[in-house]
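Figure 2 data, in text form.
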Amino acid sequence: MSQQLQEKTKKGLEDSVNSLNDIRQETGQIAELTAEENMLVAEFILALLKIMQSITSTLPVSTSVLPKEWGKISQASIDLTGQLLVLYPDKKMKDKKMKTINLTEQKHRELLLEITHDIMPTLKRLVTSYREKIEARVKFMSSVTKELQRTAKAFSPDDIKQLPI
């Protein structure tokens, strides 16, 4: 074998070994990132569901963020199990067919990002509305309680003791 061919073969082997080393390093990083992503997705869904339990049973998702290959979709939402519910119109039965999508699955990660962008304004509005309802109840109960306490003093000023709450 000529010197030039030997050098070319040696160079090709070194390049291949270097490429395999790079692939091994990239694969290790992929494994670490995937494990972290899995944990973050699980924590995200858990936190979202805790918020939803107090304010709504479903969170609407715009059908425009869903893949076009899913076909004509009439409605979509996230339920209290963290599943994406997709409703399809059924013209024959004048009913709707439903399919559920597990957003925690690896194959739906990009979709989860799109849905997250879509639902945040709605989630913010729902949380703000919930806070406002609580504020209104507190304000009402505070006013009523103060008036009742004043009225109660007039009936028996010496007998009223503060009750533990």
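Caption note: DSSP finds two helices and four strands in the chain.
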